[in-house]
């Protein structure tokens, strides 16, 4: 059976409203769909919450690793005049 959304796409990739972004459960035409970040559909609040928690954990891990990289890359050197000079790499996201 052809998908309801297949007429809207010219590529072979399934439409994001056809299945849950986490568990891949089929999303029926008359079922509730829980959205996250505008382009991710989920079959339940639980699946959506699990994805949100996963994304937040990745973001925290990324922030912590970028902080430690900045600390490691910032070295202090004494100049000839006795003033402290900071050198290093600035990481901007």
Automatic annotation (TrEMBL):
Any Pfam family the entry gives: zf-FLZ
Listed InterPro entries: FLZ1/2/3 (IPR044533), Zf-FLZ_dom (IPR007650)
Basic residues: compositionally biased ranges: 60-71
Residue spans, zinc finger FLZ-type: 15-59
Region described as Disordered: 54-93
GO BP of this protein: response to absence of light; response to starvation
Cellular component, GO, one term: cytosol
Every FLZ-type domain range: 15-59
MF terms (GO), sorted A to Z: kinase binding; zinc ion binding
Keywords: Metal-binding, Zinc, Zinc-finger
Signal peptide: none
Family: Belongs to the FLZ family.
UniProt name for this protein: FLZ-type domain-containing protein
Source lineage: Eukaryota, Viridiplantae, Streptophyta, Embryophyta, Tracheophyta
């Amino acid at each position: 059976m052809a998908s309801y959304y297949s007429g809207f796409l010219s590529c072979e990739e399934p439409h994001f409203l056809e299945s849950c972004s986490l568990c891949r459960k089929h999303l029926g035409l008359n079922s509730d769909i829980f959205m996250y970040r505008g382009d991710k559909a989920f079959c339940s609040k639980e699946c959506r919450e699990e994805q949100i928690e996963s994304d937040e954990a990745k973001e925290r891990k990324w922030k912590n690793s970028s902080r430690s990289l900045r600390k490691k890359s910032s070295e202090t050197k004494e100049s000839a005049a006795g003033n402290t000079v900071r050198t290093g790499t600035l990481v901007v996201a």
